[in-house]
Amino acid sequence: MVQITSALPIAKMVGSNRVVLGTGIVHVTGDAKLPPADEKELRRKLVQKALDALQSNEKQ
Amino acid sequence: MRIAHYLNQFFGGIGAEEHAGRGLEIHEGAVGPGKLLESLLGSDARVILTFVCGDNFAVEHQAELTAAILEKLRETRVDLVVGGPCFDAGRYGMAAGAICRAVQTELGVPVVTAMSEENPGVDLYRDALYIIDSGTNVTKLRDVVARMAALGKKLAANDPIGSPTQEGYLRRGWLRDQLVEKRAATRLVDMLVAKMKGELFESEMPATSFAPVPMPAAVRNLSKARVMLITDGGLVPKGNPDRIEGTAATRWGSYNIGGSDDLRGEDYEVSHGGYDTRFVQEDPDRLVPLDAMREMEKNGVIGKLHDEFISTCGRSNPLSNTRRLGREIAEKAKRDGVDAEPALAAALRSQPNWKKQASRWFKSLPRCRSQKWSDPTA
Asked: Containing domain of residue B129, as a range?
């Protein structure tokens, strides 16, 4: 499991082993300030990062 | 005082692990620790019934066992039901906890049990029950039963119950109003001074602690893995069909995304009272990134995106509840043959106490899966 979250301290506290930092509490995998195309690109990168974490045995 | 007592096969005198499959036996009178309980409670106390059941049977047939015990207790009036003590025996603790809770809820009869802090029964039932802290040392049986007897007596008499430290039960996470001499600021400074001097002090709000979670092994071959999306940000189809509560959710739902490349705001709503949900409402991919994951699937980065996403609301939820949700979701993922789940935590706001609680369920996911899922693609 990998957790994408914008509340990093909580993820650490409860002991999540794979954590990817999201873009904000109100839009974890998006950013309302960006134009749609850029927002989607950002989401692709975030999701890719999460998938990379799933394939790693390193705590992150 | 008339008492009913629940024991496992070991304390019930049947035998050790090889008898864990034994079904329920009902004895009239006290058995094993029940005799000690009687003697500690004094001459007017009698154990009328003793229920003995093997630990495996109890856990595998919990509903059936609980129903049988409730039925018997409807026929035979008792003033107190006692479970255990269970020490660190997990199956025993889970069974005793389930039975005690059912008796308390269904029959309104006072109950008391005892377990060590690490017993999984404590996780499940500490909110609902008075659980005496038994520690793990079975040779302390007499002390533990004495504390159970003392608390049981008070419960049966409907006397006021003191704090966990006074009575020896495990913290239930309750806050109780109390009149005190000193105001909060003074108490706080007193504690701080005691701490700096290296003296003992008792915090009025002990922090919840979280045991380390073993890390599930990496997914070896992601291009063959089935990936599921889970969120505690409260995204649900319009109309909230499972009525997932926006605070202290007791339920989760699974929602079909098969054949869909994108989540559209008009099809969904957000049941979450803890963050500004307008951005997710506008584009739910900002919480559950279906569009990006679908691309990953099409490009062969992942094997398959599971046809359902899972959703619940992580706001302001007691740990006992979120742990159950976590277990149930993990079981669902296992059943559906999922290899990897990105969990998406949104909406955890700034009050530390319930932040802990809200995200606690994430922890139970890897724990449930770690044995069987260590190498899903090999």
From this structure: 2-167
